[in-house]
Write a structure and sequence with these properties.
The protein is an alpha+beta fold and about 160 residues long. Helix content is about 55%, strand content about 20%.
Length: about 160
Amino acid sequence: MAIITFRSHLVALVLAILFAGTAYVLIDAHRSARAVEADVSLQTARLNHLEQQQKEMTRKQRILKRASRFLAAARDLGLEQQDWTVYEVNIEKPVTFKVMAQVLNQCANSSAYYFKPSRLNVNVTYGSTEETSPAPAAAASGQTENVRGDGLLTLRGAFIAKNR
């Protein structure tokens, strides 16, 4: 009987050790599986991020290509800043309606220049008897008699002319 009890104790001990070893192996395998799962999740997130960056890079390359084509077309048309000269305009003087019309006609854009206005104001002087500055034609011919203006013209801006 002592042998049977010893054997049963021995079998129980072996089974207990086997059970503990199996539990350890299973816990270790579970821990490894969780680590691999976390790593796969991290690598998937990295892959998604890299794919998003690749899409963004492709989009930016398309934009840069279109911008480059646009700039080349502008360059071919002579629309670069160094190809243009800016002439500031600052007029504030009494003039006749005829002179006002001439000034405004000169402000119309053409293929050789553009006018960029910043201020245009005309104050009409109804029946004013005040003498004003000489008319441009009179001043150019040396006449110094003053003429009355129909209104006070204030014009500010810039002519942007293409260099030849």
